[in-house]
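Input chain follows. Return structure tokens only.
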Amino acid sequence: MGKEEARAKLRLAKKQLERVQIACWDPKDAEEAVTWAFYAYENAVIAVVEKQGMQWQKTHPSKVNLASQLHAQGILSIDVGPKIELFNELRKDVQYGEPGPELESVDLDDLAIELENFIGEVENVITSNDEDM
């Protein structure tokens, strides 16, 4: 646990953000966008968890709880736990070949912008008080 792990998770979340952004261009691919958004949100949360030196488990519910906890502690400005839950459900629907109307209601432009802003906030948390970054 520590800053190297936090940096690695942040780099991974940024790569996943790029995949979300690509999926939001023409031709738009909502299935790809929500799948990579799910992974990016989870990895961004774990980056902050690593930076804070918190314990975590490799389970989806653990990551949702940690996202809410980071918000409640004032470390993150928004609680992305519900977003992680939503994108996990959408991702599973896609993987099982059963994308429903919820997928069609996702505004891909908003998705990409909100994720980019969140990852920017995470980057600020990761780099705060770290002179050698």
